[in-house]
Write a structure and sequence with these properties.
4 helices; 39% helix; 32% strand; single chain; 230 residues; alpha+beta
């Protein structure tokens, strides 16, 4: 608006100089001509600045629209989150983070109990020590549950078909979740303290070379020393 006002002032000045150019002496005419050239130069500069600002505003608006479109297609900054509802039996849930209004598309969630992973590792070690051939792929595939979720809408949740072993004091889970917007991993630990479950969780986006922590939350009553450092 300031640039538009400046341009209007310059145009008014140029008009006044043109109308006052005639009927004056040669010396005055020369002085007015110099002033007219200066004002015209300022007008050209102001016009160039206006065009530059207008182009930048159009470019910024275009990038904002492209960003919104990309978020709508991929999910933007949305991320999934695994949690457990301690019913009888416990229910494993997958939630939308609820921080954005963008759905998560093409979601595939794999969740496993770290106790199962420890048992599989011990089984593999025992087989190697005894010279027995065992399929590592079959062992890995037998750990946890993989679910094709599809689209997870904002504020949405789904129940994952995973059966947890009965536990009275602690539960350690891990998850890997893929979607159109990227890859996520989560560590989720529960400890029973004073008759209630306390949780600690960390959600990371990306792989080993580009990891970014999206969420790390530890309940106040969670036992110290039980939560592993990143």
């Amino acid at each position: 608006m300031a640039i538009v006002g400046l341009s209007s002032v310059l145009l008014s000045a140029i008009g006044a100089l043109i109308f006052g150019f005639f009927g004056v002496s040669s010396a005055e005419r020369t002085s007015k001509l110099k002033t007219l050239l200066i004002v015209a130069s300022l007008g050209a500069i102001a016009g160039g600045v206006m065009q530059y600002v207008s182009a930048k505003e159009s470019e910024r608006a275009l990038y904002e629209r492209l960003d919104r479109l990309n978020d709508m297609v991929t999910g933007g900054d949305a991320y999934p989150r695994v949690d457990v509802l301690f019913e009888d039996p416990p229910v494993v849930m997958l939630h939308h983070d609820d921080l954005t209004e963008n759905p998560l598309y093409d979601v595939v969630a794999r969740v496993w109990d770290l106790r199962d992973a420890d048992r599989a590792g011990a089984q593999l070690l025992k087989a190697q020590q005894s010279g027995v051939r065992i399929s590592t792929l079959e062992l890995v595939q037998g750990i946890g549950t993989t679910t094709l979720v599809g689209t997870l809408p904002p504020h949405g949740s789904v129940i994952l078909p995973m059966k947890l072993e009965p536990t009275s004091e602690k539960l350690d889970l891990a998850a890997q979740i893929g979607s159109r917007v990227g890859f996520f991993s989560q560590r989720l630990i529960f400890r029973r303290v004073g008759g209630r479950w306390c949780r600690a969780t960390r959600i990371v986006r990306g792989g080993n070379n580009s990891e970014r922590i999206l969420l790390e939350k530890v309940d106040p009553d969670f036992p110290q020393g039980e939560w592993p450092a990143h």
